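PROTEIN–LIGAND DATA SHEET

This sheet pairs a single protein chain with one bound small molecule, NAP, given as SMILES. Inputs appear in the order they were entered. The predicted three-dimensional arrangement of chain and ligand is reported afterwards as a token string under its own label.
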Amino acid sequence: MEKLLNWGLLSTAKINQALIKPINASKRTRLLAIASRSQSSADAYARENKIPRAYGSYEALLADPEIDVIYNPLPNHLHAEWTIKALRAGKHVLCEKPIALTLAEVDEMIAAAKETGNVLAEAFMYRHHPQTLKVKEIVDSGVLGKIQLIKGAFTFTLDREGNFRQIKEMGGGSIWDVGCYPVSYARMIVGAEPVEVFGWQVEGPSGSDDSFIGQMRFANGVHAQFDSGFKSPSRSYIEVVGSDAVLKIPSPFKPRKNSELFLVRDEVEERIKITGTELYLGEVEDICDSILLKKPQRIPLEDSRENIAVLLSFIESADKKKPVLL
Ligand SMILES: NC(=O)c1ccc[n+]([C@@H]2O[C@H](COP(=O)([O-])OP(=O)(O)OC[C@H]3O[C@@H](n4cnc5c(N)ncnc54)[C@H](OP(=O)(O)O)[C@@H]3O)[C@@H](O)[C@H]2O)c1
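PREDICTION REPORTED AS:
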């Protein structure tokens, strides 16, 4: 019988709620502990969510010898620090996106994973969903003809006063928070890295962006455009434009269990229905496969590194008000 992997949640972050159900649902995982910076909030969270162990510091969670996997949903500027500490404490880590804020941090994280032999994965949940796998299959089948343009967006109205998303030093900015999705999606579809990016930003009070508009050029002639932001209603889509057909993906980043794609050829729209899975279960099962069965991760760490490299180039472009060559 396979070993049951015990998970610990690093903090009482809001996004934990998306992971608790899949960790409890998977046959290979058990949610064993929660840690918070305060014992009382850890205790309350453990009670509400029926988690057996509650720790009043992150260090105490990492010191629990029975924890196998740490889920790291800390504010972005703490991803690298606590992921490296967890890896060095002998834990595998599922770390929220963006995996880190500099390439030096990503390289240190990759080195720590290699040195310790523990698995580190970035929690880009959409990459594991059957809809995303189907999109890639359709694009690679050639039915769209020569891919010319990928357009996309991810915006919402941010109404969390004082949240790290609006504080530059904590990795705030819509490009880090949601722009990372269309950038990652376009790179996945093209299967290569952009050679040039150009971005504009609307700055918020702390200097991070409230909205971002970017475009990328790939060596094979594909162009991509996206916008991300905190100041408009909830919007997300991806459209892949080929010489022969267009693929429309209305819910690319948070596909539901049953989702739909639209293939438009000669002005005729074909509906493609996808029977999916629970959105966040895929990343839980993928890291279990890597830990228990030594399977390659669906999102290799080099892919996570390249996404950060592109996001940093966008920020550089917006700062310099010039295109950046990669
Ligand atoms: N994949 C997805 O669908 C998805 C969705 C949303 C967010 N995310 C990612 O998940 C991460 C967390 O987002 P969130 O909105 O869930 O976070 P959040 O609710 O703001 O929670 C972050 C937690 O970090 C802890 N923390 C430690 N140091 C902190 C500090 N200096 N300031 C504030 N909090 C601190 C706090 O927990 P304690 O007080 O308990 O220590 C806090 O509750 C981000 O990286 C984000 O990009 C991913």
